[in-house]
Design goal:
12 helices, alpha/beta, homodimer, 5-stranded parallel β-sheet
Chain lengths: 320, 320
């Protein structure tokens, strides 16, 4: 059942012993939104904790560190920024019944009993800002930091096409409420480890073009990661690189992992990345989507290009 | 004489046959602000034209192309986003008397008869937005595009520490007025030519560290530019790269040109880039400044590091 902001706010205000679930490989929006809700609901003396299949990356330490979650049997389970319950990772099996889902992904599969879904919002954090305002809970500087983190990370620092006037208005309000916008942006976008610099250089050497330059493809092998000393966190945002090249409609980044290749697609308006990835058992947004593929790189590459080909052809046939 | 917004607005409303001057090597803020004023003043039937020592880069074509400037003897000359009259380049000698300067650079030398200077503004475009509002001139979608361009380029896409709540509020207003924020951001930040990708790769190979990693230094030689086919425009924003590396206080980019090395400094709060560059006969903002140095690269490099050394030592001696 779909709820509006008022109904979702009521649900959260009535609930107690609340478990907030972030998606696996957590990003700024899922963690930022969870912690904003956590601090706000703790502020009105509710028992709350957050769970995630993967550890919180160090870079979000300014709001995740020093928090101690109490143990309790959850009575109200909320998935935050989770489009598909499989994205809960190993938490999926632990919590078969999700009471509420708060999300902004168009591809949301409707797995929860109730959901607050608004794909027009640039970030789930934007939705959480409205939710906290509706609940009349104070937005402390710390909560403003959490929400700003979600907002800025899901919009590539206010650069992507999902940004609306409303996004900037909320950013202005969060700054007025005392969030450390410059510090957060610097931490998120302007801080690359030496390992990241090194792995990026190696990866750029693997750069190749397909479909007359409409597609650019990058591969980050285990070997590159090992020689550069880059960890998973060092690779954040690397998926945006091939898409930035002039004339490229879709940028593909393949990251070799133990379980196979983790594929990220970033597309412009010519290609629906989410539709491409759905064919490969993945999902996401129209302009940013992903999937996981097994096999060696040559096979993965061939499968990707085969799947992509009809989309490229269809876009080429469109009058521009 | 320093003017406030009301006084500057009056001056512009009374003036006619207005010449707007952009600084040499024009960036989004100087051109965006000039064209915003141009379109707005043309809208009330004033004669206006823009001059600049260098051609307008192609990337700003969405508001510069198709404009025809009429010839006339200027009766009111306005320098826009020009901190020092030397930055007028070859236009400096043509116009010894500047009637009004509209600027946000703290280092503004006060060369004009009157100036509207507000260093708290993230961009001169932010000041021009207030000026147009004060003059009650309509902000068309085209003017909004010009102002948004200045705003987003001078704030690194709303990421830098010069961004205030007011900056986001103006961005929201400009979006509501119909500017193509996503298209502009994409054009400014998400579009690299293949030559740029190539020259960036070559430049990153020259990356070196100094002062225990507090300084990162990058050199882009003529040879790199030639082998990659990169033009001046392809290098825009490249100065931000070394500063992004973890632990780096100041990133230096040296671009070899016919007249010598064009040096760009990008610093965090530890170093005053503007103070360093002033010692080298340059200038700018605290966190982004520049100068030009003659000599071969070894000499330029030595001079830079010698000048920087006391600043690094002073910062190291500060309690953190």
């Amino acid at each position: 059942m779909d709820l509006n902001i008022v109904q979702a706010a009521e649900q959260l205000l009535y609930a107690d012993d609340i478990l907030l679930l972030a998606h696996r490989s957590p990003d700024g929006d899922t963690i930022g939104s969870c912690f904003a809700l956590y601090y706000a609901l703790r502020g009105i003396k509710k028992r709350v904790r957050i769970e995630c299949a993967d550890p919180f990356p160090r870079r979000y330490g300014y709001f995740t560190e020093g928090v101690f979650f109490s143990e309790f049997e959850p009575r109200f389970i909320v998935a935050v920024d989770v489009a598909d319950r499989r994205l809960l990772g190993e938490k999926d099996a632990c919590y078969p019944n999700i009471d509420l889902c708060i999300d902004h992904h168009l591809s949301n599969t409707g797995y929860a009993a109730r959901r607050l879904l608004d794909p027009s919002q640039a970030a789930t954090a934007q939705l959480c800002f409205s939710l906290l305002s509706e609940m009349r809970l104070p937005i402390t500087p710390q909560i403003a930091d959490c929400l700003f983190t979600g907002l800025t990370t899901d919009t590539g620092g206010f650069r992507f096409s999902n940004v609306t006037a409303q996004t900037h208005r909320i950013a202005a309000e969060l700054m007025a409420l005392g969030c450390d916008a410059a510090g957060i942006n610097r931490q998120m976008f302007e801080c690359k480890s030496r390992s990241r610099i090194q792995v990026e250089r190696l990866a750029m050497e693997s750069l190749e073009y397909a479909f007359d330059g409409r597609c650019a493809l990058l591969c980050i092998s285990q070997k590159m990661r090992e020689s550069s000393g880059a960890c998973e966190e060092d690779l954040e945002g690397v998926a945006g690189l091939p898409r930035q090249i002039e004339g490229v409609w879709v940028g593909i980044t393949c990251r070799e992992r133990e379980e196979g290749y983790r594929i990220s697609l970033r597309a412009d308006e010519h290609i629906d990345a989410s539709a491409v990835c759905r064919l490969l058992d993945g999902g996401g947004h129209k302009q940013a989507a992903g999937c996981t593929l097994q096999g060696d790189f040559a096979a993965v590459r061939a499968k990707l290009l085969d799947t992509l080909a009809p989309f490229i052809r269809a876009a080429q046939d469109q009058p521009s």
